[in-house]
Write a structure and sequence with these properties.
Layout (H helix, E strand, L loop, with lengths): L1 H58 L2 E15 L4 E14 L4 E11 L2 E10 L2 E8 L15 H5 L5 E11 L2 E10 L5 E8 L7 E9 L10 E11 L6 E9 L3 E10 L2 E7 L5 E10 L2 E8 L4 E11 L20
Antiparallel strand pairs: 1-2, 1-8, 2-3, 3-4, 4-5, 5-6, 6-7, 7-8, 9-10, 9-16, 10-11, 11-12, 12-13, 13-14, 14-15, 15-16
């Protein structure tokens, strides 16, 4: 009897413990679910914040890239011009209005020839310039550097800083410079460099017979084509076609630089028929053409810088093949 009572007491006690544990488990489950929900919300918020930061990064990506050339004087502290800076720049513009980029230039001040480079950011620029090493003068007797060159071991270098502004017609740069070796200081100013010669255009003209004493020269044919300026050096090249009479047709090509041009003309079969040369300026050109053996053939003249066929006044209009632009 006593054992049965003890067993019954244990059963009641276990039931109470089990029934009391169920709410605790439920509470713990609810707490765990709440914490998991909060952690999930935090992860979502983190993703939202990450997306917002991505939007900021996207907004800072360049929406426009501006490239160009600049040139200008270098002066001493008193404003006397003693040098020149000439170079290239690249600017990246973003949607929020900020700009940043770099520049690279040639630096020439008195007898110092060097290079300059630096960074540009939101209207301000800073960089450094360094004198380029010069080749030593060799003694003609033993091919060794002279004593003067051995003593001149000082290479000039320094810093420069200033401001820049993008205008409608290009960039404007102003600032100061310092020679870290000699301590000399000064100023520089540079503006957008635009070559006088257009980068690409058309030309048209006429061939004229040798008899130029007549008041009305004998126009024997026409010439027309395109010219393209060299991207990294002065001058450029031209190519086109010529007609002479009704049957003979061929091509012309050559180079131009500093107001002068020269080239060759070929027959319809591609063989060289002769050469030509002349001068150009202010939208017109004139020159002479010769046969392959040097015999004078006549004169030529025309206009360049034309945008379309209707701009040519020296050539009568007629159907002609189109020269494809390079």
């Amino acid at each position: 009897m006593r054992g049965a009572k003890y067993a019954g007491f244990l059963a009641v006690l276990m039931a109470i413990m089990i029934l009391g544990a169920i709410p605790a488990v439920a509470v713990r489950s609810e707490d765990t679910g709440a914490r998991e929900g909060e952690e999930k919300d935090e992860r979502v918020n983190d993703r939202v914040e990450s997306d917002d930061s991505n939007d900021v990064r996207v907004a800072r990506r360049p929406i426009k890239i501006v490239r160009g050339k600049f040139i200008g004087p270098i002066t001493d502290e008193d404003g006397a011009e003693n040098g020149r800076i000439f170079g290239l720049y690249t600017l990246y513009m973003t949607a929020d209005g900020s700009t940043k980029g770099r520049f690279l230039a040639r630096w020439k001040y008195n007898d110092i020839k060097g290079k300059a480079m630096g960074v540009m950011r939101n209207g301000e620029l800073k960089g450094r310039w360094t004198e380029l090493p010069q080749r030593p003068t060799l003694d003609a007797a033993n091919d060794e550097p002279t004593d003067a060159d051995e003593n001149e071991v000082c290479i000039h270098y320094g810093t420069l800083m200033g401001k820049y502004e993008l205008m409608d017609d290009g960039i404007v740069m102003r600032g100061s410079w310092e020679d870290s070796v000699s301590g000399e200081t000064g100023y520089f100013k540079a503006e957008e460099y635009t070559p006088d010669e257009p980068p690409k255009g058309r030309f048209k003209g006429v061939w004229i017979s040798v008899d130029t004493e007549n008041e009305t020269p004998d126009v024997r044919g026409k010439l027309y084509g395109i010219y393209i300026k060299n991207p990294n050096r002065p001058g450029g090249r031209f190519a086109g076609r010529w007609t002479l009479g009704d049957d003979e047709k061929g091509t012309i090509h050559g180079q131009y630089r500093g107001g002068n041009f020269k080239g060759v003309w070929r027959n319809v079969n591609g063989n060289v028929g002769g050469y030509l040369h002349g001068t150009y300026g202010e939208g017109t050109f004139s020159g002479r053409w010769f046969h392959r053996d040097g015999t004078p053939g006549g004169y030529l003249k025309g206009e360049y810088g034309l945008k379309n066929d209707a701009d040519a006044s020296v050539v009568a209009t007629e159907d002609r093949p189109v020269v494809a632009e390079a």
